[in-house]
């Protein structure tokens, strides 16, 4: 696994930006000391390949019975394609909503009720979008056995949402791991570390 190497490059290339002193504002209105733009990863072949290899190994370990890899549109699709290639498995992808023309499909690709599916997204914040993709796949007769992602904030809301949906979740990288790495490397001060830790414990209360 290339966890430390991946985290270092994500920071170095500003794919993940940490700014505890000048927070970012999310679309939801939440203030955050971290901004993640994982869509940029497709432009970095070595990083992209490391992530695909580690995701493939993770899925093989956590979901050995997986028969199909699914990508959650749009950011999860390229990574699902790479993982499916490495595992030599079929792939599907899930749209946010059904097409409004043609056959009106929301799920593209073929599967049966007996096929065990693992869905991949790039980033999990609360889990809402990927869990909607799980519901859409199951509504079409798919059997989703779990979800994986490149990165997760591991916020309390996400933990609760996955538990409520009874969906197993196995991320490659998480905010606590990122924070530990940055603290150990000396890239952030002890005061900034505490700020980042406090945000993670209760992000909506953070000012």
TrEMBL record:
Which cofactors must be present for this protein to function?
Answer: Mg(2+)
**Key word Chloroplast present:** no
Q: What is its EC number?
A: 2.4.2.10
Ranges of residues in domain Phosphoribosyltransferase: 67-147
Subunit: Homodimer.
Q: Tell me which family the UniProt entry assigns to this protein.
A: Belongs to the purine/pyrimidine phosphoribosyltransferase family. PyrE subfamily.
Job of this protein:
Catalyzes the transfer of a ribosyl phosphate group from 5-phosphoribose 1-diphosphate to orotate, leading to the formation of orotidine monophosphate (OMP).
- What name appears for this protein in its UniProt entry? Orotate phosphoribosyltransferase
Organism of origin is Lactobacillus kefiranofaciens
């Amino acid at each position: 696994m290339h966890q430390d190497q991946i985290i270092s490059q994500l920071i170095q290339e500003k794919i993940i930006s940490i700014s505890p002193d000048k927070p970012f504002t999310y679309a939801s209105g939440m203030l955050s000391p971290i901004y993640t733009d994982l869509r940029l990863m497709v432009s970095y072949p070595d990083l992209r390949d490391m992530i695909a290899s580690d995701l493939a190994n993770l899925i093989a370990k956590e979901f050995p019975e997986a028969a199909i890899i699914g990508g959650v549109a749009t950011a999860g699709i390229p990574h699902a394609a790479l993982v499916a290639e490495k595992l030599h498995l079929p792939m599907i992808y899930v749209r946010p909503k059904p097409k409004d023309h043609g056959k009106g499909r929301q799920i593209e690709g073929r599967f049966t009720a007996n096929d065990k599916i693992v869905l991949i997204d790039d980033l999990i914040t609360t889990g809402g979008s990927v869990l909607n993709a799980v519901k859409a796949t199951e509504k079409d007769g798919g059997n989703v056995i779990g979800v994986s992602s490149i990165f997760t904030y591991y916020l309390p809301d996400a933990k609760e949402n996955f538990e409520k949906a009874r969906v197993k979740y196995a991320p490659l990288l998480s905010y606590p791991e990122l924070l530990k790495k940055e603290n150990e490397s000396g890239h952030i001060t002890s005061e900034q570390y505490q700020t980042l830790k406090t945000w993670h414990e209760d992000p909506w209360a953070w000012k």
